[in-house]
Amino acid sequence: MSPHPSLSVGSIALLRPWRLSDARAVVDAFNDPEIQRWHVRRADSEDEARQWISEWRDGWTAEAQLNWALVDRTSDSLTGRISLKCVDLHDGSAEAAYWMAPAWRGRGLCSQALTTLCQWAFREVGFQRIGLEHSVANLASCRVAEKAGFRVEGIRRSAALHADGWHDMHVHALLAGDTQDRR
Questions:
Q1: Is residue 80 part of a domain?
Q2: Which parts of the chain are coiled coil (predicted)?
């Protein structure tokens, strides 16, 4: 795969490769109760966050997961994470995942960044399908998916363990042709 690109998200934000210096911001984000609610994994220290960032960067090299830091274009402060995991270049598919720092929620930035990433994945990499799953109780994540054009495909029952137990997962997908339908 080509070098890890940075992608413009409108005039306000940028999807860029992760840096080890982002570790403090990752720890701060994972101290947020909403992120803790939807993620079992915790970043308890900057060392642990640096390990995650190293894994995220290694995922690009291995062509297994493609991770971006979503940052404010002016300050370079971390606003969130967007990734394509379960990458299968042969089948042209991946699964999208994301989270946003609390101060940046509710502005439409996550759905805009997800749209930008999917357009890049379809156009530049040649993906055919990008899936996405979230807890049926995570209404904000559902809004992000729908605003980015993902269509609902169904529900997987008791499919993911969260801090409060097993959750049914809403299944969405965006196909390369769906983006043409939205023009």
A1: yes
A2: none
